[in-house]
Give the backbone structure.
Amino acid sequence: MNHRRNFLRAGAALLTAATVSKAAQGAVPEAPMQDKPDTMPPLAPPETGNGGPPYNPVVTLNGWTLPWRMNNGWKEFHLVAEPVRRQLAPGMTARLWGYNGQSPGPTLECVEGDKVRIFVTNKLPEHTTVHWHGLLLPCGMDGVGGLTQPQIPVGKTFVYEFEMKKSGMFMYHPHADEMVQMAMGMHGFIVVHPKNPALHRVDRDFVFIINAFDIEPGAATPRVNTMLDFNLWCWNSRVFPAISPLVVRKGDRVRIRFGNLTMTNHPIHMHGYDFAVTLTDGGWVPKTAQWPEVSIDVGVGQMRAFEFVADEPGDWAIHCHKSHHTMNAMGHKVPTMIGVDHRGVAEKIIKLIPDYMVMGDKGMADMGEMEMPLPDNTLPMMTGTGPFGALEMGGMFSVVKVREGIARNDYKDPGWFKHPPGSVAREWTGEAPVAQSASASAPAASELQVRKPVRHAH
C-alpha cells in the first residue's frame, strides 16, 4: 500500500529515504504539505535500515504523519508555521494558523532513542517558537520565546535537536504570543514508540488533539481573546459529523490517545466497552496500576490513552460527556423557552416576518431535523443523519465502528452497522417480541451526512 502517494505532494517521499546526497546533508529538508481534512493512512516505517526498529504506526483522526529523512544518524523533520484554511465540516471553513497546511499540524512519529532534528520555518505574520510539550530535553531546546531561545522572526528557519529519551505521547505548540497562536489552531501531536517494538503493542492506534474555537456565525477567523465561551468544540479542528469514524477490526487491541489544548477539561466517554487507562503525560501506567473506566477526564494541557479489545461489533458512540461540547455554534444568550406557549405572539410576529418560526418551547430536538436559515459559513447547532434519523449532535462526537472481516490496514468507513434480526430497540405493543427481519435493520451508508442549511437569498 503506497501511503505516501495517497497524501504527499510530488517529491515528498524523498524525505524518508535512508540516505541523502552530500549536497542535501547541509540543506533544510523539504516540507511536505497537506490541505485535505481526511484521515490519511498511517505512515509505515521502513522495514530495514536507518529508520530504527519496526513499529505499528499511528492513525491521526482527520490528519496525517509528517515524513522524515535520515541524515548521518539524525531523523530530520521540517515544520512550517503558516496561515491555513481548515474545513471544520462541509459548509464551514475557518481561517486558522497551523503547520504544513493543516491545523493541527502533522503528527511527528519516531522511536525511543532517536536523535531528532526539527527545522521550523516561520511563515506567520509575527514571530513564533515551538515548545515540545512533555518531552525531556535540554533547556535551550524547550521553545519558550525570550526565556530559553530568541523568537523565530518572520521568514526565518530555526532548528531544534534532541534525543527522544522515553516513549509515550507528547504535543507541540508555540510559546510565543501563545494566547493568539494557540487560539488560532497551532498545535500538533508527537508519538514516540518504544525501542522494543513488542512492548505496549496494539493493532490499531488512534491519536487526536482536543481543541476549540470561538468563531462568530458567518465569520471565518477565531476570536482570540475568548477565555471560556467557545462555540466550536473540536477533535483535530473538526466537528461532528465531519470527524472521521474510528474503524476497527473485531478482535483488534485498540489504543485511543488524545491531548487537551482547550481552556477546560473533557470527560471522554465511549459506549459499549469498558477500557483500561494505560498511558498518561508522564508515561506508561504499569499493569498493576491501570484502572478500568468507561469515561476518562483529561485536564487542560494533559494527555491520556486507553486500550480495549474490540470484541463486540457495532457502531459505538465516542464523545465528550459535557453536553454542550456535542453542539456547534451555540448561542450563549438564547433564552430557555421550554413550557412557554408563545404561539399567539408568534402569529403576530409572522405577519411582520413571514419566515419566523416557534422553537424551543418543547425542547431543542426539533432543531436537529429542521433546516434553519443560517449565515454563510456557519454550521447547524445540531446536525448529522444516522440510519434511524437525525442524530442531534455536533462538536466532539464520533463513532467507533467495530466490524468483522476488515483487512489489517483498512481504515475506510464500512458504512452503518447491520444489526442482527431482533436486536434493535422497538416500540412496545404489548405483544411477545417478534424476530426482526434483516431488512428492518439499519440500512448501509457510506458516511455521516451533513444537513444542508438554508441560505438567505440576500
Q: What stands out?
A: Confidence is low (pLDDT under 50) at residues 1-21, 436-448, 450-458. The chain has four helices and 26 strands.
